[in-house]
Design goal:
The structure is a homodimer.
Chain A lengths: L3 E8 L3 H19 L3 E5 L4 H7 L5 H9 L2 E6 L14 H11 L4 E7 L12 H4 L3 E7 L11 E6 L2 E11 H16 L4 E6 L5 H17 L4 E6 H10 L6 E4 L1 H14 L7 E8 L6 E7 L16 H15 L2 H16 L2 E2 L9 E2 L2 H11 L1
Parallel strand pairs in A: 1-2, 1-3, 3-12, 5-10, 8-9, 8-10, 13-14
Antiparallel strand pairs in A: 4-5, 4-11, 6-7, 11-12
The complex binds 3-isopropylmalic acid (2 copies).
One 3-isopropylmalic acid (IPM) sits at the interface of chains B and A.
Chain lengths: 365, 365
């Protein structure tokens, strides 16, 4: 029997509660489908800081590196607002992305039909929305050096962050975007600020060259990132796949996620390059929403984004396409039945907690 | 009689057409109100490149520096897509901002009641919207060095952009935000990414210290810039004044502008520091929309954003508050009467061109 190694990092806030529902799905798949998942579990974020004084321990980093896939909950909370910069909760997530070389962040922004009314946009603009944002995740201003605060004397400090992109980094992320587009509507829109940033100039050139070389069958468009933000708000359905850098991707994917009205439901996948020999790629799956400390521990968090992230894991790490499809359909069915957690509650719907939502999805699966 | 020196830079695309309508208002104010405006005019952007091979000539830069205020149209267009980076149309605007030290960019995002239906957001979310985004305009990644593309050999290039912020830059822009807030709802929301960027850490510290020192009567809130983008889309009316850096300000103000449904109508002001002796501040006023090359020269462009920018000029450069109020009311009245350019056309409204719109506003003024 195949063994599939999963490393679970529930993290802080509502992370553990959401992860609990995924654990049940894993157990079910092992029992009923002989899926062969072997799970181990570690700490990340504030909970790792409390235990080890670091946002993730070396031992857990090793386990993450060894696993077939990492499932990540969420990190952060007011409790750790004043811990030193180097060990703040986010540092654990950033280190995982960097050390696992998870350069490709896939963020679907889809609008669940049952939730179109929850969007702040007019329903006709978001109904049926299905965008895939491909965000570069290991480069740019997130990791470039120097990244410093220097005391200049006279009460003045100088802060510096550095955006760095090399050709190969842009090549590989645009290749992912073009490959993904071929499985969808075959359209890619690349966003940068080439009118202001040199990295935008290079980004534009490399995406254009990669397209010409290997993917000329895909329709490619370029847009300035600020105009891209506008167009997302004006007419989001014009997009299929968007490819952009780490910081613009952070902003644009959050705006896109909020547009859908389904923020609490959106998953993401962060993928590395396929291994030369085995073809396997390192991967981490996490919900787009944060740790929501205000509702943590109350049993009311929405586990759907975490479960949908596990569906992405089935699809991209294990090639279990049918199971992924079934799990996503189970989510949609539960929503269609009017079963809702508090964050997506609507008139006439049935309000449930985290556990009931998890069980409802499992029983549809 | 006071002399008021205006330097007009209509620029490219629809810039000159929009500026034409402001010129009529200036002439009217000189004749009917003895306003004493003295105007001179120059070239910027693609039209300057065509004439001088630079995005703005040295002579025009001198005139801009000497004027009481600069009125700026728009720059760029496909004709100049391939000119060298250093002389691209945007370089003229960026040089003006930098050399005039226009560090404070004021971008009101207001929703004209007559246009609420044009927003992609549900009308109840934008009706009455009135946000003021204060964007830092002379620092950050726009101007930091190094800003280079280097050939690494092996077909690899490396692009670098540098975000730099010093304490004094953050201090002076946050002071502007707090001062403005006092004339409004007395609330400031500061946005950065302190969880990822050192400049975000310093930004947050300096805004907090400036608030504590001098503006503790103003309500201050901090938000991560990605969450800020989300909140703008979810519930924009929660904001009064937003203060943020150059690049986040570029993205967030464009998203906010698009939300209003009034994009073609939004003005902006870019202000320098008050002169130690005279108290005068250098200033440039420009519409938020771009050069719209596709409709240039057709007489159909909407001149309202340019005219509203001139109203900001009356208010901030010349203290002509009553005249500014009257001009803004004239715009609102014309819209209420159902007079519309093509970009804001609605059922039952009267469609007019650039000149008719300008004249309609002038006759209400
Ligand atoms: C938590 C934070 C470091 C992170 C980021 O900025 O990448 C988050 O906003 C995200 O988008 O995953
Ligand atoms: C034209 C461009 C350089 C400019 C900017 O990025 O600042 C524009 O987008 C703006 O917001 O004024």
């Amino acid at each position: 029997m195949t063994t599939r190694n999963l490393f679970l990092l529930p993290g802080d806030g509502i992370g553990p509660e959401a992860m609990g529902e995924v654990r049940k799905i894993i157990a079910y798949m092992n029992e009923e489908m002989s899926a062969g998942f072997v799970t181990d579990e570690g700490l990340v974020g504030g909970s790792a800081y409390d235990a080890h004084g670091a946002a993730i321990s070396e031992a857990d980093m090793q386990k993450a590196l060894a696993a077939d896939a990492v499932l990540f909950g969420a990190v952060g909370g007011p409790k750790w607002d004043d811990v030193p910069y180097e060990v703040r909760p986010e540092a654990g997530l950033l280190r995982l992305r960097k050390d696992l070389e998870l350069f490709a962040n896939l963020r679907p922004a889809i609008c669940y039909p049952a939730l179109a009314a929850a969007s702040s946009l007019k329903p006709e603009l978001v109904e049926g929305l299905d965008i895939l944002i491909i965000r570069e995740l290991t480069g740019g201003v997130y990791f470039g050096e120097p990244k410093t605060i220097t005391d200049l004397g006279n009460g003045q400090k100088r802060a510096i962050d550095t955006q760095v992109y090399d050709t190969y980094e842009i090549e590989r992320i645009s290749a992912v975007a073009f490959e993904m587009a071929r499985t969808r509507q075959n359209r890619v829109c690349s966003m940068e600020k080439r009118n202001v940033m040199k990295s935008g100039v290079l980004w534009n050139q490399v995406v254009t060259a990669t397209h010409k070389d290997k993917y000329s069958d895909v329709k490619l468009e370029h847009m300035l990132a600020d105009a891209g933000g506008m167009q997302l708000v004006r007419a989001p359905k014009q997009f299929d796949v968007i490819v952009t850098d780490n910081l613009f991707g952070d902003m644009l994917s959050d705006v896109a996620a909020m547009l859908t009205g389904s923020l609490g439901m959106l998953p993401s996948a962060s993928l590395g390059a396929p291994d030369g020999k085995t073809g396997k790629r390192k991967a981490l799956y996490e919900p787009v929403h944060g740790s929501a400390p205000d509702i943590a521990g109350k049993g009311i968090a929405n586990p759907i984004a975490m479960i949908a992230s596990f569906a992405m894991c089935l699809r991209y790490s294990f090639g279990m396409v049918k199971e992924a499809d079934n799990l996503e359909t189970a989510i949609a069915n539960v929503l269609d039945k009017g079963i809702r957690t508090a964050d997506i509650m609507a008139e006439g719907a049935k309000k449930v907690g985290t556990i009931e939502m998890g069980e409802a999805i499992l029983s549809e699966f």
